[in-house]
Amino acid sequence: MDTLISLFAQAGHTFKPWLGEISLTIVACSLIIFGSDINHFLRRLLSGKSIFIRTSAFILVNSFGYGLLLIKVSPWLTQQLSTMPSQWMFASVITTFIVIGLWAQKTRHY
């Protein structure tokens, strides 16, 4: 078990310089997976409204909303990951990408 923890810690140290990119990728992949659900919800919420309101809402949510999430959540996630011990950070990142991949496969986002 100590060997596995040591291996995870070494891998975590390798990830440290790339935490910003890793966080951005996690947030972007999550937005890709959940973006269609958000857009479907928005479409149902705004059904029956004028084309101008629907188009404006779509533009605001997709360009500014998703962009704002990327800009604000990525640095926060980077900071959260950097405070974790290296072995737990490595395990969390790998687990997160596995869960995102499984969710994408389940919802056919591949």
Task: Explain what this protein looks like in three dimensions.
- The protein has helices spanning 2-15, 19-45, 51-82, 86-106.
- It has 110 residues and is mostly helical.
- The protein has one domain (1-108).
- The protein is elongated, with a radius of gyration of 18 Å.
- This is DUF3392 domain-containing protein.
- Pfam families: DUF3392 (PF11872).
Characteristics of this structure?
single chain, mainly alpha, 4 helices, 0% strand, elongated, 110 residues
User: How would you spell out the order of helices and strands?
Assistant: HHHH
Low-confidence spans: none
The termini sit apart by: 35 Å
**In angstroms, what is the radius of gyration?**
18 Å
Shape: elongated
Helix tally equals: 4
